[in-house]
Design a protein that fits this description.
By secondary structure, the chain is mainly α. The protein has 7 helices and no strands.
Length: 244
């Protein structure tokens, strides 16, 4: 018995390195559309309408700030944009693996569900991390400093995005050298953890959730991704590396 973890669950990631223009274009388009959707949920007050339909009290999302949103709404919308930009950069500039259409749709849909849950919770007064009792003239800085959850979540989000993206670029630069073909990369950020990119993803997902609906929701989201990565994604990747 090898003692290595057995791969469990499903894996959407293709391990084949080949061009996939249709799948890649579909993925980029869907991830860009998600940023528009999250903005529209706030700007068109669809999120507020859903909250009210379900019997809840909604927080204001439309204001005189940039993009017609409140400063809190601008901050939440910018997180959705940041997540989409990160994925688009990864697909265009980093990943060499095939992106099948089915994977493009499924991965994009999963991220949209996560982001939409955050947006809806951010519009619900019971869960929203939006600060209260601020004047209409409050700036984004005022809002951040008035909501510990929003500030902490935004910091974690940016740290996680930067960690995941820079780690992926470091590995790509290493593998782009002919002498490193077939070698695993353990330098840079990867010297801190074998799966540092998964750690970065978990960090920004947790931060996004905290910024939307506070620490309890953030911890639930973070726990979900820790479980998924340790029990499904990492064992599958380990098995692939063993069989390669």
């Amino acid at each position: 018995m090898s003692g290595k973890p057995a791969a469990r669950g499903w894996d959407l990631a293709s391990r084949e390195k080949r061009p996939s223009p249709f799948g890649s274009t579909l993925f980029v388009g869907l991830r860009a559309a998600d940023a528009v959707l999250q903005y529209s949920l706030l700007r068109q007050e669809w999120a507020s309408d859903i909250v009210k339909t379900l019997g809840g009290i909604a927080v204001p999302t439309v204001g005189a700030g940039p993009l017609g949103l409140t400063p809190y709404g601008v901050t939440l919308s910018s997180l959705a944009v940041g997540a989409s930009v990160k994925h688009i950069i990864w697909r265009i500039a980093i990943s060499e693996q095939e992106m099948k259409p089915a994977a493009a749709v499924t991965i994009s849909a999963f991220n949209t569900v996560c982001n939409t849950a955050n947006t809806l919770l951010s519009a619900w007064a019971l869960s929203s991390a939006a600060p209260t009792n601020l004047p209409p003239s409050a700036s984004i800085t005022d809002v951040l400093l008035s909501s510990p959850s929003l500030l902490a979540g935004s910091v974690l989000f940016n740290l996680g995005i930067a960690t995941e993206l820079f780690a992926e670029f470091q590995r790509k630069w290493f593998k782009s050298k002919p002498e490193n073909k077939g070698k695993p990369y353990g330098g840079g950020l990867w010297s801190l953890a074998t799966n540092i990119n998964y750690g970065g993803y978990t960090l920004w997902r947790t931060g996004y959730a905290i910024a939307a609906a506070g620490p309890v929701w953030g911890l639930l989201v973070g726990a979900f991704f820790v479980y998924d990565f340790t029990q499904r994604a990492i064992p599958i990747l380990d098995r692939y590396c063993i069989d390669k």
